[in-house]
Design goal:
Helix content: 55-70%
Structural class: mainly alpha
Distance between the termini: 5 Å
Shape: globular
Order of helices and strands: HHEEHHHHHH
Largest sheet: 2 strands, antiparallel
Strand content: under 5%
Length: 220
Amino acid sequence: MSRQAVILTLLATLMCGAVFALWPELDLEVARLFLRDGAFAGSGASARALRWLLYVLPSAALGGAALMWLAGRLGGRRFLFLVLSMALGPGLLVNVILKDHWHRPRPVQTMEFGGPDPFRPWYRFDGACEKNCSFVSGETSAAAWLVAPASLAPPPLQLPAIVLALGVAAATGATRMAFGGHYLSDVLFAILFSLLVAQGLARLLHRTETTPPKDEPPLP
């Protein structure tokens, strides 16, 4: 992945942080769009089925990559890139470091939507949530990880695959907001953090690749 892509993603992350720090009420206004008769709209059977489908897609993609690696159809460095980007992004950064230590209450937990806890903007660490909190969306970050395998597609298919992966991430984020599980800033940061981890890891592995393995293209 190019240096320019990393810089653009980093700038987008900084801009996202600034916008939601200056106007934290944006999170509340967008969350209200998902209310139906005073409750969040994502409680029906079709919404739960869609959430489950989007939830399993990243695991299925990583499992498919493992099968391709075992069959000799995917190079070791590329498989390592996929495993590490999933483990370090959605795994370590999001689900271990952020969600259990940021203490941001989810929308359904906040007073504005009938919960017991005060709303907290993304930059506050003094929320009432103890574990598995709102910042950032774990399911959305895993869906955004799909950009990593999409970036390994052949050049004619690479851009459409990346766009499709981002579409899956956006759909996952919208589903989580519809359930009252996350704010818009949780979703946007989740996507951007996963992209930054994958982009940084790809560049790191590319720099350490002194001699490209036979029959294996270099990492993007």
